[in-house]
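Course assignment 3, question 2. Fill in each field.
Student: A.L.
Task: Predict the tertiary structure for the chain below.
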Amino acid sequence: MPAAAWATLIISAVIIALTAVALLRVIFHLRAVRATLVSTTGGVRAVADLTSTVPDRLTSVNASLKPVRDFCETV
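Answer field:
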């Protein structure tokens, strides 16, 4: 094979190897971001549970606050 063919093969292999390494780095970064998002989602759910509306057993309070809730939803 001529030298130009060998040079083309070597340069192609280097480009492919660098691209593969870059893609692996992206995969690892995305996995780290996913882990962070999972823990953040868990925290948001905990806050949502702690700040949920008044339980259904307090229907008189819920009925009294219904106009306020309706107004807040329009804002």
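Instructor remarks: The helical segments are 3-50, 59-74. The first helix runs from residue 3 to 50.
Grade: pending
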